[in-house]
Amino acid sequence: MPKPRQRYVCSSCGWQTVAYVGRCPHCAQWHTLAEVAETVTAKTPPTAAAEAVLLGDVPGDGETRLVTGIGELDQVLGGGLVAASVVLVGGEPGVGKSTLVLQAADALARRGWRVGYLCGEESPRQVRMRAERLGLSRSPVRLMASTELEPVLARAEADGLDVLIIDSIQTVAVQGVEGRTGGPAQLTEAAAAVVAWAKATGTAVILTGHVTKGGDIAGPRLLEHLVDVVLYFEGTDSGLVRVLRAAKNRFGATDEIGVFEMTGTGLRSVEQPAHLFLAGRDPEASGSAIAAVMEGTRPIAVEVQALAVPSHLAVPRRIAVGIEGARLHLLLAVLARRAGVNAGTYDVVVSTSGGLRIRDSAADLALALAIVSAVRDEPLPADLAAVGEVALSGAVRPVAQLGRRLAELERLGVRRCVVPAGADHPPGALELLPAATVRHAARLVFGATPAGTSGAGG
Ligand code: TYD
Ligand code: MG
Q1: Residue 49 domain-assigned (yes or no)
Q2: Fewest CB atoms within 10 Å of the CB: 185, 232, 283, 417?
Q3: What is the pLDDT of residue 254?
Q4: Where a domain ends, among 256, 271, 286?
Q5: CB within 6 Å of ligand 1 — which residues?
């Protein structure tokens, strides 16, 4: 019998090696490598050759979709759960993973699917209490409590479940595998076993997994390559908005998001999230601008805010919430160099409302104008939005799907929008203010700078 081989797995990204290194060369995190004993089973000599079928002979009648009826969840999944697939829902503790999967379990069970729910994180009593809060206490979901994976799969198979939910994959152990429950070895073995079982039985499986910032406990990242669909559930600590994002989807698009609101009675799908991301906007306040970002196939109007206060520090503070820090630094540099707006003596804070994390560079122009507004302490016109990417040269670059963004802004009562000059401007009722550069855009909006400001600035 061969000796078990040692290997090291990065708990942050899943990179593997046979020799220990202090820093993962793949994701550049420090001290994330954990030792894993490879389980080596005695190899039996090969007996029969594997089967092969012609590609054209494989039944290809499309996948069976189990629609949950929770609109935003179905949207992110690409039209519902797929039979024999494994979905991983990752997120920080407390974001609402258990709430989401319990609501999904109930919705599926009510549609006639046989649904089992393994509660590893909580006792069945606690799950029952949550269900009461959600108004689901009479739900036909079968609860299981176990810390061992095999008995759960056996029960699920015996009951002929269509859907099995494991909350969470970090709380179940696989027999015969070394390492603590939730550690890298157990986690990958458990997920691999679940995937093989799902394919063999045709059951759809949803796993939840905590993301831990420290990196000392193996997280869902380790499982991304094993499962079919990876969804991350995000939100802010203070805000009630939750965004479900697909990081991987073998059966749908990965740029789709689902928006939910956490209420006193569970998560509510928000099909038209504008009221969340524009809610409470004070048009009289300086530093507030409206952007339109694309999230998957959907345009979303969102308020971006900036605050600039004189700094007492040698190196003024830059704080970005919901926006990449590098993006803020870039825009401040461009504004200083290309538009004559110097925030060098100010502490600058930027954020998005409702906790939406913006990745779309089309929000650059709105953000830049919010910063200019904050530095000048002068509000932007209440009915104005801005859409455009800002280049290092100060140029305002065209963005994809301008027409759909403008239509959404118009629907929400915006009347004017600063847009990239020279782009194809779709017809619509919005008054468009084409700007070639950020300087030009600032002039159009604040009209301040020397007389006759209509020309393109540089
Ligand atoms: P939970 O689903 O337990 O999060 P996770 O499984 O990701 O750790 O959600 C926990 C939070 O959600 C908790 O702070 C309470 C809040 N919550 C509500 O606001 N409303 C509700 O109806 C429920 C069930 C939870
Ligand atoms: Mg939970």
Answers
A1: no
A2: 283
A3: 77
A4: 271
A5: 91, 93-99, 130, 133-134, 262, 264-266
| Any domain includes 24 | yes
pTM value is: 0.73
Same domain, 339 and 259: no
The ligand 1 atom at the shortest distance from the C-alpha of residue 134 is: 22
Residues 120/171, Cβ–Cβ less than 8 Å: yes
| Residue 4 scores a pLDDT above 90 | no
Of 232, 228, 143, 224, whose CA–CA distance to 187 is shortest?
A: 224
Q: Which two tokens stand for residue 394?
A: 């100060």
- How far apart CA 325 and CA 319 sit, in angstroms, is 7
262, 263, 267, best to mutate for ligand 1 pocket (most atoms within 8 Å of CB): 262
pLDDT score recorded for residue 451:
35
Which tens digits make up the pLDDT trace of 396-424? Answer: 999 999 998 998 898 888 899 999 998 77
List the alpha helices (DSSP H) in 56-148.
71-77, 97-110, 124-133
Token pair in block for residue 306: 């900036």
Residues 305, 373 share a domain: yes
Q: Do 26 and 71 share a domain, yes or no?
A: no
Domain range for 21 is 3-40
Q: What is the pLDDT of residues 332-381, one digit of tens each?
A: 999 999 999 999 999 999 999 877 788 899 999 999 999 999 999 999 99
Q: What is the total count of domains within the chain?
A: 3
Tens of pLDDT, residues 169-204: 999 999 988 888 888 889 999 999 999 999 999 999
Do 402 and 297 belong together in one domain? yes
